[in-house]
Amino acid sequence: MYANLTSCQALGNICVMNMNSFSSTTFDACRVFQYIFENTAGLSTVHSIPFWRQSLPWLFYGDQLGLAPQILSTTPLPTNFTFKGQNQNTKLKFVAASYDIKGNFLKWQTLEGGVIQLCPDTEKRLNAAYSFGTTYQQNCEIPVSKILTGFHSPVFYDVFLEYTDENQHQSLWAVPVLNLNLQHNRIFVNQDSSSSKWLLTRRIFLVDAVSGRENDLGSQPKVIRIATQISLSIHLVPNTKNGNIYPPLITIAYSDIDIKDPNRQSVKVFFSVKYEMNQGDAYIQTDIALGVLGGLAVLSSLLKTAGWKKRIGSPMIDLQTVMKFLAYYAGDLANVFFIITVGTGLYWLIFFKAQTSVSVLLPMPDQEERFVTYVGCAFALKALQFLHKLISQITIDIFFIDWERPKGKVLKAVEGEGGVRSATVPVSIWRTYFVANEWNEIQTVRKINPLFQVLTVLFFLEVVGFKNLALMDSSSSLSRDPSDYIAPYSRILRYAVSTALWLVIGIIQIVFFAAFYERFIEDKIQQFVDLCSMSNISVFLLSHRCFGYYIHGRSVHGHADTNMEEMNTNLKREAENLCSQRGLVPNTDGQTFQIAVSSQMRLHYDRIHETLTRKNGPARLLSSSASTFEQSIKAYHMMNKFLGSFIDHVHKEMDYFIKDKLLLERILGMEFMEPMEKSIFYNDESYSFSSMLYYGNEATLLIFELLFFCVVDLACQNFILAAFLTYLQQEIFRFIRNTVGQKNLAAKTLVDQRFLI
C-alpha cells in the first residue's frame, strides 16, 4: 500500500498547487497527504530525515510550534564561504529535482540559467543571483499571453544546496520554503512576524495554468496562479570567522490572475537574493558610543556656555542661557552623530569589501533605517550650528579706528561772510573705505575652493568609479563590465565612500592651502593685518558684549595719508628695520589680540554706538538741533576718539593690560580671569578674529556641506544631483553672508555701502 511513487508524487503536487494549506475541517489533497503520512510511520525514512518517508514526497517540516527557528538557525551548513584567497568559494550551487504535474520525475538540474527566475535576462546576469555576497534584485512585467504560451503545465521543484564538506565530499542540503499563501486552519501563519509560528515546506512551482481550466484541459484558463515574489535569504552564523551560514530560506508568494484579455494583461514579478546577519552587537556598540560621546558633548556644551556667560558679563541663568546651551549642544551632538556615522560607514566598507573569509555581511535596507536616521540628525543639528554661527557673524559690532592726524591748516572760505579763515586739513576717509572694503571681501574667504571640492568628489565618484565600491557585492573593483549584473547600492556604503572622498579631498586642500598657497602665493588674513598697518587703521571688533578682537594697525611711520614716493620710502625703512616694530607693545610684533572688556568700557561704547546707529530720535550726547547725518558724523568722530584714547591708556578708569592666555584657557576656549576694573588684551598670534569669518569656521562648513551632499544622495541616490544642489546651497549662503554682512558692516562703521564693492 502507498507504494505507487508516481501517484504519491502527483498527490503531493496537488497539495502544493493548493498552497500546502490544510485544515482539520476539510479533506482536501493536503489533508489526504497528511493522513497517508501519519499512517506510514512504519516505513523507513530517507537519509534519516523524519519528515521524508519512503515512497512519499517531502512536503512539510512538521506543524509543531517553534520548529521553524530550529531548522533555520540551529545547524550551520558544514561549508565555508570566502571572498578572496586560494580557497575562494563564492558560488551558491543550487540544484533541483523537478517533477511534472503527474508526478513523473523529470531530471536533476542546476538553478543557473534562470530556472526559477521568470524575468528574462542574459545568462550572465541571471547567474549572478547565486554569487555569494551579492545582493540580487530583479523585477519585470511579463505579458500574460507569454506566460500562457510558456507554461502549459506546471513544473515542481525540490531545491537543494550542493556543498563540499570538510572531507571534500559533495553533499546536498534541503532548502526550506516559506510559502506566504499557506493557510493552517484558515490562518496565514507564514505571514506572522514571529518565525516560531511558521510552517516550512519543501516543494515549489512557478506557474499553475491548469487548475483554472474548466471542462477541457485544452481551453484557456479562467485564472492562473503565478509566483510573483521569490526571495532567497542567506543568514550568516553569528560571530563566525570562517564564512559559515545557516540553511538558506526560499520565501515565495503567489498571486491569482483573472484572465480577461491575455494580450493586454501583464504581471509584475520580483526575484531577490538577500544576505542577513544579526545586527544586535552593532546596535549595542553604536548605543554605547552614542552614550559616551553624547555625555562628552553635554560637558563640552556646558563649558562653551560658561565661557559665553563670562564673555557677555552676565552671571544670571535665564532663557537666553538655555537657548545658547541648546545651540552649542546642537553643534556638539552633530559632531557626535557625524563621528558615529562615518565610523560605522567606514567599518562596513573596509571589513565587508576587504575580508577574505566571510565574517560580516552588509545590513539590509530595513536595517539601514537607524543609520539613515543618525545621518539625518547629524545634518539637522549641523545646520542649526551653521545658522547659529552665521547669525553671530552678521551681527558683530565692528569699528575702524583711524589713527591719522591732520597735517596742518588751510585757508577756507566762509559762506555768507565773504571772508576766509584757517581750518584743519581734513583726514582722508579713503583709507577707511579701503580697509572696510577689504574686510568685506574676506568675509567669505575659505581654506578650500568649494567648486573644486564638489567637482573633484564628483569626478572620483562618477568617472574614476569609486561609486562602484558602494555596490552590495564582494567586488572591490572600481570598474564594472556593462554586461555584468549591477547589484543595488548600499546606502551605508554610499555614505562611507562619499564621506571618505569628501574629507580626504578637503583635508588635502586645507593642507595645500596652509603649507603652500598661504606661504608662497597669498595669505589674505595676514595681508589684511598688513593693510591695516599700512593704512594706519585699527580694527575693533566685539563678537560678544564683553569680548572681541583687536587688530592693531597703527602705522609705525606716524601717518599713511601720503604720496607714492613717501610710501615706498616708509616700506623700505621698515624692511631694513630702520623704524620701530608694528606691535601694540613697544619692540614687539604682536598686532592681533583677543580682548575682554570691562562692563564700564562696554557701557561707554554703547552710549556712543547708540547714536552712531540710530536713524531717528533725539540725540542724547549731541545737539538735538543737528540733523541725523550730522549726529552720525559727530558720533563717528567721538567713537574714533574714544577707542583711540582707550588704546592709548588715556582713560585710567577704563584701562587695560596685556597678557598671554594660559594653555588651559586656549584648550577650553574660555577666559578664567574676568575684566572687573580693567579690560584684558590677550596676545593672539593665531589670528583668531578669523572665527568671525568663513575662514575660521572651515571645519563646520566642510562637514555641513558634506552632510548636505550625503542627505541629498541618500534621498535621491544620485551623486550628480547631490553635487549640483550642494554647490547651489554654497552659493546661496555665501550670497546671504556677503549681503547681510555688508549691511551690518555699513551700519556699524558708517561706511557708505556703495563703497563696499
Task: Describe the overall structure.
Pfam families: Meckelin. One of its GO terms (cellular component) is MKS complex. One of its GO terms (biological process) is cilium assembly. With 757 residues, this protein is α+β, with helices and mostly antiparallel strands. 41% of the residues lie in helices and 17% in strands. The chain contains 18 helices and 21 strands. The protein has helices at residues 5-17, 29-38, 67-73, 123-127, 144-150, 280-312, 319-354, 369-393, 430-441, 450-464, 491-521, 524-535, 564-575, 599-613, 628-647, 663-668, 698-716, 719-749; strands spanning 45-46, 49-53, 93-99, 105-110, 136-143, 156-164, 170-174, 177-179, 203-205, 207-208, 223-235, 249-258, 266-276, 397-402, 409-414, 419-424, 537-544, 547-551, 592-596, 656-659, 679-683. Strands 5, 8, 10, 11, 12 and 13 form a 6-stranded mixed β-sheet that branches. The longest helix has 36 residues, at 319-354.
List the helices and strands and how they pair.
Layout: H1 5-17, H2 29-38, E1 45-46, E2 49-53, H3 67-73, E3 93-99, E4 105-110, H4 123-127, E5 136-143, H5 144-150, E6 156-164, E7 170-174, E8 177-179, E9 203-205, E10 207-208, E11 223-235, E12 249-258, E13 266-276, H6 280-312, H7 319-354, H8 369-393, E14 397-402, E15 409-414, E16 419-424, H9 430-441, H10 450-464, H11 491-521, H12 524-535, E17 537-544, E18 547-551, H13 564-575, E19 592-596, H14 599-613, H15 628-647, E20 656-659, H16 663-668, E21 679-683, H17 698-716, H18 719-749
Parallel strand pairs: 8-12, 11-13, 20-21
Antiparallel strand pairs: 1-2, 3-4, 3-6, 5-13, 6-7, 6-9, 10-11, 11-12, 14-17, 15-16, 17-18, 18-19, 19-21
Helix pairs in contact: 1-2, 6-7, 7-8, 7-11, 8-17, 9-12, 10-11, 10-18, 11-17, 14-15, 17-18
